TrEMBL record:
Keywords: DNA-binding, Transcription, Transcription regulation. Residues 146-243 form the HTH araC/xylS-type domain. Transmembrane segments: none annotated. It holds the Pfam family HTH_18. This is Helix-turn-helix transcriptional regulator. SMART domains: HTH_ARAC. Residues 240-261 are annotated as: Disordered. It comes from Dactylosporangium fulvum.
Protein backbone atom coordinates (compact mmCIF):
# COMPACT_ATOMS: atom_id res chain seq x y z
CA UNK A 1 0.00 0.00 0.00
CA UNK A 2 1.40 3.41 -0.94
CA UNK A 3 0.17 6.84 0.10
CA UNK A 4 1.49 10.05 -1.42
CA UNK A 5 0.71 13.60 -0.55
CA UNK A 6 2.42 16.66 0.84
CA UNK A 7 6.06 16.27 1.80
CA UNK A 8 5.79 12.68 3.09
CA UNK A 9 4.97 9.47 1.23
CA UNK A 10 4.20 6.14 2.87
CA UNK A 11 4.53 2.57 1.61
CA UNK A 12 3.74 -0.56 3.63
CA UNK A 13 5.20 -3.99 2.84
CA UNK A 14 4.32 -7.34 4.43
CA UNK A 15 7.52 -9.40 4.61
CA UNK A 16 8.09 -13.05 5.42
CA UNK A 17 11.05 -14.24 7.47
CA UNK A 18 14.22 -13.93 5.39
CA UNK A 19 12.62 -11.79 2.68
CA UNK A 20 14.81 -8.90 1.58
CA UNK A 21 14.86 -5.85 -0.60
CA UNK A 22 18.21 -5.94 -2.34
CA UNK A 23 20.52 -2.94 -2.42
CA UNK A 24 18.86 0.07 -4.01
CA UNK A 25 18.79 3.87 -3.83
CA UNK A 26 16.01 6.42 -3.35
CA UNK A 27 16.15 10.06 -4.34
CA UNK A 28 14.06 10.83 -1.27
CA UNK A 29 15.17 10.51 2.33
CA UNK A 30 13.68 7.36 3.86
CA UNK A 31 12.75 6.28 7.35
CA UNK A 32 12.65 2.48 7.68
CA UNK A 33 10.39 1.24 10.46
CA UNK A 34 8.84 -2.10 11.41
CA UNK A 35 5.51 -1.57 13.23
CA UNK A 36 5.53 -5.38 13.62
CA UNK A 37 8.45 -7.77 13.49
CA UNK A 38 12.19 -7.09 13.32
CA UNK A 39 14.17 -5.70 10.38
CA UNK A 40 17.88 -5.59 9.62
CA UNK A 41 19.12 -2.74 7.43
CA UNK A 42 22.45 -2.83 5.59
CA UNK A 43 23.96 0.52 4.62
CA UNK A 44 27.48 0.32 3.19
CA UNK A 45 28.34 -2.78 5.24
CA UNK A 46 27.00 -1.31 8.46
CA UNK A 47 24.10 -3.26 9.91
CA UNK A 48 21.32 -2.17 12.25
CA UNK A 49 18.66 -4.39 13.83
CA UNK A 50 15.38 -2.54 14.33
CA UNK A 51 12.56 -3.71 16.60
CA UNK A 52 9.30 -1.70 16.49
CA UNK A 53 10.44 1.00 18.94
CA UNK A 54 13.27 2.09 16.62
CA UNK A 55 13.52 3.36 13.04
CA UNK A 56 16.44 4.23 10.78
CA UNK A 57 16.85 7.46 8.84
CA UNK A 58 18.53 6.84 5.46
CA UNK A 59 19.55 9.99 3.57
CA UNK A 60 18.51 10.30 -0.05
CA UNK A 61 20.97 8.79 -2.48
CA UNK A 62 22.41 6.28 0.02
CA UNK A 63 22.47 2.65 -1.13
CA UNK A 64 20.83 0.22 1.30
CA UNK A 65 19.17 -3.18 1.67
CA UNK A 66 16.55 -4.45 4.12
CA UNK A 67 15.88 -7.99 5.39
CA UNK A 68 13.11 -9.30 7.66
CA UNK A 69 14.50 -11.34 10.56
CA UNK A 70 11.01 -12.66 11.30
CA UNK A 71 7.57 -12.15 9.76
CA UNK A 72 7.38 -8.37 9.69
CA UNK A 73 5.68 -5.30 8.37
CA UNK A 74 8.01 -2.71 6.88
CA UNK A 75 6.75 0.85 6.81
CA UNK A 76 8.67 3.02 4.41
CA UNK A 77 8.38 6.75 5.10
CA UNK A 78 9.69 8.88 2.22
CA UNK A 79 10.51 12.56 2.62
CA UNK A 80 11.07 15.02 -0.19
CA UNK A 81 14.55 16.54 0.34
CA UNK A 82 13.47 20.01 -0.77
CA UNK A 83 10.66 20.18 1.79
CA UNK A 84 12.25 18.30 4.71
CA UNK A 85 13.60 20.18 7.74
CA UNK A 86 15.53 17.09 8.83
CA UNK A 87 18.94 16.97 7.21
CA UNK A 88 21.00 14.21 8.83
CA UNK A 89 23.72 13.21 6.38
CA UNK A 90 24.42 9.82 7.92
CA UNK A 91 22.13 6.90 8.77
CA UNK A 92 20.55 7.86 12.08
CA UNK A 93 18.58 5.72 14.54
CA UNK A 94 15.39 7.30 15.82
CA UNK A 95 12.97 6.39 18.57
CA UNK A 96 9.38 5.75 17.44
CA UNK A 97 7.21 7.03 20.28
CA UNK A 98 3.51 6.10 20.63
CA UNK A 99 2.69 9.57 19.27
CA UNK A 100 4.91 9.05 16.21
CA UNK A 101 3.32 5.63 15.62
CA UNK A 102 -0.18 7.13 15.76
CA UNK A 103 0.79 9.96 13.41
CA UNK A 104 2.21 7.53 10.85
CA UNK A 105 -0.99 5.48 10.98
CA UNK A 106 -3.03 8.68 10.67
CA UNK A 107 -1.04 9.82 7.61
CA UNK A 108 -1.74 6.47 5.95
CA UNK A 109 -5.43 7.40 5.85
CA UNK A 110 -7.35 9.53 3.36
CA UNK A 111 -6.65 13.09 4.51
CA UNK A 112 -7.29 16.50 3.11
CA UNK A 113 -4.42 18.92 2.54
CA UNK A 114 -4.71 20.97 5.79
CA UNK A 115 -4.93 17.88 8.03
CA UNK A 116 -2.08 16.12 6.21
CA UNK A 117 0.17 19.16 6.34
CA UNK A 118 -0.40 19.59 10.06
CA UNK A 119 0.20 15.90 10.83
CA UNK A 120 3.39 15.87 8.75
CA UNK A 121 4.71 18.91 10.64
CA UNK A 122 4.05 17.30 14.02
CA UNK A 123 5.58 13.97 12.95
CA UNK A 124 8.80 15.66 11.88
CA UNK A 125 8.92 17.43 15.25
CA UNK A 126 8.63 14.20 17.27
CA UNK A 127 11.22 12.12 15.39
CA UNK A 128 14.38 12.32 17.49
CA UNK A 129 17.74 10.53 17.24
CA UNK A 130 18.69 8.12 20.01
CA UNK A 131 22.36 7.90 20.92
CA UNK A 132 22.11 4.43 22.40
CA UNK A 133 19.59 1.64 21.85
CA UNK A 134 20.09 0.18 18.39
CA UNK A 135 22.91 -2.30 17.94
CA UNK A 136 25.05 -1.21 15.02
CA UNK A 137 27.44 -3.72 13.49
CA UNK A 138 30.00 -2.44 10.93
CA UNK A 139 31.81 -5.08 8.89
CA UNK A 140 35.57 -4.86 8.33
CA UNK A 141 36.69 -4.50 4.72
CA UNK A 142 39.95 -6.47 4.90
CA UNK A 143 39.36 -9.99 3.60
CA UNK A 144 41.01 -11.69 6.60
CA UNK A 145 38.97 -9.81 9.19
CA UNK A 146 35.81 -10.12 7.10
CA UNK A 147 36.24 -13.91 6.92
CA UNK A 148 36.40 -14.01 10.72
CA UNK A 149 33.36 -11.73 10.96
CA UNK A 150 31.35 -14.00 8.70
CA UNK A 151 32.27 -17.04 10.80
CA UNK A 152 30.99 -15.34 13.95
CA UNK A 153 27.85 -14.04 12.27
CA UNK A 154 27.06 -17.54 11.00
CA UNK A 155 27.49 -19.03 14.48
CA UNK A 156 27.24 -16.65 17.45
CA UNK A 157 28.08 -19.57 19.76
CA UNK A 158 31.54 -19.95 18.19
CA UNK A 159 33.89 -19.70 21.17
CA UNK A 160 37.18 -20.02 19.35
CA UNK A 161 39.86 -17.70 20.67
CA UNK A 162 41.38 -14.87 18.69
CA UNK A 163 44.51 -16.99 18.18
CA UNK A 164 42.43 -19.84 16.72
CA UNK A 165 40.43 -17.55 14.46
CA UNK A 166 43.62 -15.84 13.28
CA UNK A 167 45.01 -19.19 12.15
CA UNK A 168 41.82 -19.91 10.20
CA UNK A 169 42.10 -16.49 8.52
CA UNK A 170 45.83 -16.97 7.85
CA UNK A 171 46.60 -13.89 9.86
CA UNK A 172 48.09 -13.01 13.22
CA UNK A 173 46.12 -12.09 16.35
CA UNK A 174 47.77 -8.68 16.43
CA UNK A 175 46.80 -7.99 12.81
CA UNK A 176 43.18 -9.01 13.43
CA UNK A 177 42.99 -6.80 16.51
CA UNK A 178 44.28 -3.86 14.49
CA UNK A 179 41.95 -4.51 11.55
CA UNK A 180 38.80 -4.74 13.64
CA UNK A 181 39.62 -1.58 15.55
CA UNK A 182 40.66 0.55 12.56
CA UNK A 183 37.97 -0.69 10.16
CA UNK A 184 34.95 -0.97 12.48
CA UNK A 185 35.74 1.38 15.35
CA UNK A 186 35.22 -1.54 17.75
CA UNK A 187 37.71 -3.80 19.46
CA UNK A 188 37.47 -7.45 18.48
CA UNK A 189 35.79 -8.29 21.80
CA UNK A 190 33.29 -5.46 21.36
CA UNK A 191 32.54 -6.51 17.80
CA UNK A 192 31.91 -10.11 18.84
CA UNK A 193 29.57 -8.92 21.61
CA UNK A 194 27.65 -6.71 19.17
CA UNK A 195 27.29 -9.63 16.74
CA UNK A 196 25.93 -11.87 19.48
CA UNK A 197 23.51 -9.25 20.73
CA UNK A 198 22.26 -8.49 17.22
CA UNK A 199 21.48 -12.19 16.85
CA UNK A 200 19.53 -12.09 20.10
CA UNK A 201 17.10 -9.33 19.03
CA UNK A 202 15.02 -11.48 16.69
CA UNK A 203 14.89 -14.32 19.26
CA UNK A 204 13.76 -11.97 22.01
CA UNK A 205 11.19 -10.39 19.69
CA UNK A 206 9.73 -13.85 19.08
CA UNK A 207 9.02 -14.06 22.80
CA UNK A 208 11.81 -16.43 23.79
CA UNK A 209 12.88 -15.92 27.42
CA UNK A 210 16.33 -14.61 28.24
CA UNK A 211 17.41 -17.93 29.76
CA UNK A 212 16.78 -19.65 26.42
CA UNK A 213 18.24 -16.90 24.24
CA UNK A 214 21.54 -16.53 26.12
CA UNK A 215 23.07 -19.90 25.13
CA UNK A 216 21.83 -19.57 21.55
CA UNK A 217 23.99 -16.46 21.11
CA UNK A 218 27.09 -17.64 22.95
CA UNK A 219 26.58 -16.69 26.59
CA UNK A 220 27.06 -19.25 29.35
CA UNK A 221 24.53 -17.64 31.68
CA UNK A 222 21.50 -15.41 31.41
CA UNK A 223 23.08 -12.89 33.78
CA UNK A 224 26.18 -12.56 31.56
CA UNK A 225 23.93 -11.98 28.55
CA UNK A 226 21.86 -9.36 30.37
CA UNK A 227 25.00 -7.53 31.51
CA UNK A 228 26.36 -7.44 27.94
CA UNK A 229 23.01 -6.29 26.57
CA UNK A 230 22.88 -3.46 29.10
CA UNK A 231 26.43 -2.33 28.29
CA UNK A 232 25.69 -2.01 24.58
CA UNK A 233 22.10 -0.71 24.55
CA UNK A 234 21.82 1.01 27.90
CA UNK A 235 18.87 -1.26 28.79
CA UNK A 236 18.18 -4.77 29.99
CA UNK A 237 16.33 -6.93 27.45
CA UNK A 238 13.11 -6.53 29.45
CA UNK A 239 13.39 -2.72 29.44
CA UNK A 240 14.42 -2.66 25.78
CA UNK A 241 11.28 -4.56 24.76
CA UNK A 242 8.91 -3.16 27.37
CA UNK A 243 7.19 -0.82 24.87
CA UNK A 244 7.17 -3.23 21.94
CA UNK A 245 3.87 -4.80 20.84
CA UNK A 246 3.38 -8.47 20.25
CA UNK A 247 2.42 -9.82 16.82
CA UNK A 248 -1.18 -8.61 17.15
CA UNK A 249 -0.44 -5.24 18.72
CA UNK A 250 -0.94 -6.52 22.27
CA UNK A 251 1.51 -7.09 25.10
CA UNK A 252 4.78 -8.95 24.45
CA UNK A 253 4.16 -12.59 23.69
CA UNK A 254 6.37 -14.03 26.42
CA UNK A 255 7.74 -13.18 29.81
CA UNK A 256 11.05 -11.42 29.15
CA UNK A 257 11.89 -10.64 32.76
CA UNK A 258 15.60 -10.64 33.40
CA UNK A 259 17.41 -12.25 36.31
CA UNK A 260 17.84 -9.83 39.15
CA UNK A 261 15.12 -7.40 38.05
Amino acid sequence: MAVRGGAIGLARFDMTRGQRFEHHVHREHQVVWAPAGVLMVDVADRYWVLPPALALWIPGGVRHATIALRTSVMQGIYLEPDNCPLAWREPTVMAVSPLARNLIEYLAGDLGDPARSHAETVLLEVLHPVAKAAIELPLPSDERARDVAHLLLADPTDHRSLDELARVARSSPRTLLRLFLTETGLTFAQWRAHARLQASIALLAEGQPVARVAPQVGYATASAFVAAFRRVTGHTPAAYFSRLPGPHGDAPVADRRDPGE
